[in-house]
Write the structure tokens for this entry.
Amino acid sequence: MVLLWLQSPYGLAALEKEGASMNTFSGKWTRCFFFFVLILFITRASFAESWESEILTGVSADLTSIWATSSITAGTWPNNVKTEIFCTGETGTIIYHNGTAWQSQDSGTPNTLNGVWGSSGNDVIAVGLSGTIRHYNGAAWTSESYPTANTLNAVWGISGNDVFAVGDYGTILHYNGSSWQPQDSGTNSNLNAVWGSSANDVFVVGELFTILHYDGYAWSAFEPTFTERPSLNGIWGYAADSVFAVGESGTIIWYNGDVWALMSSEISSSIILNAVWGASACNVYAVGRLSNNGAVYHFDGSTWSSQENLLSPANPAALLGIHGTSLRDIFVVGNVGTFVSYNLPEEEKYPLVCATSPVDGTTDVAINANLIASFSTEMDPDTITEATFTLTDTKSPVPGTVSYESGAFAVFTPDDNLESETTYTATLGRDIEDRFGYGIGDATDYTWSFTTTAEPSSISASGGCFISAALGRN
């Protein structure tokens, strides 16, 4: 299926940042362009995954947001991974999972809590109605002073000493580790979500298609170039030049570092999307509601598709928040105490190589091309090295440099141009693991081959934004 990269319910459109022209394609846009258009031979095994929904025992309140963290503990792999989950909701509800069981926590407030985020399981912040801010230290929730009476809708941070909270009437607060200070957003619109790649690269979205950006000094606005202005409710990205935002009317937009563009999808315009989160560039999820029922959509690097057939039992309540720590641990919350978890059979809990560039079997590859592999979850960079990511011709290994990029990309850069009219084989070793010790290989390495062009070419594949090949293992 080919993805029409700027098609939406509103027609062909794009967004400009402060008047920047869509017709002026920067190098970054060109590099990322085939993120949308180079979709080749997508296949996938028939997995037994499912979304298992339940109503948490004793919880009748709507659960508005969720944050999870996983850590390595004592014991043997894979049972040494502890995952903690914090859910917030109406009437000050906080439900916590300690890795073994659920328990209710006393938030100390009757106010609805709309957002939650933490730097660790012992440093968690929840925000909500009337400027409420609660801080968890691993033992108890305590109140923080309210620099605003406006409702806060979301919270996110780079670290425990660099946190942003956003809310109604353009409210933006910043926490430096000791106090909260208001920042000038330049808007009176209600702000619904916040995410950033660094302290100097933070995005906020809100009602009426509001999109703000913080460069470490001041907030500036992106202005839409078309008349339809659906509200945006959720935002997530894996790099400064790859950010997703979702909202009303099934809206999904993507930022490439220069411009925002409306993405094509199979999502109905009657869907309201409330939140988005991803395990990697080729494994992104958006949740929301259709009528009064929950909806989950998945982006595999080429297109968005409904996962309604994976919901068990079918038709859960409307879904409001999503977060996870890997492809195995993804959690969703919603109305009337709804909690949804992603269930994978044991044999499918290992990371996949979901895309490669060049694609396996490709011919006429430029002799100065880099090799790129995309994984289904964030990997352990220490396991992606010149020893585990290699390239060989029919005679000998090709020397090169290996790097790892956010979004779960491994990049092999040859030291010199490749030979023309030569077939090469790339190998990802079975010892490559994600950050919790799950490896990509069972008994064999992952390999793919390609052939270089007969004539030298200056056009090359490059790192960053791409999705191009098959989901699965060799």
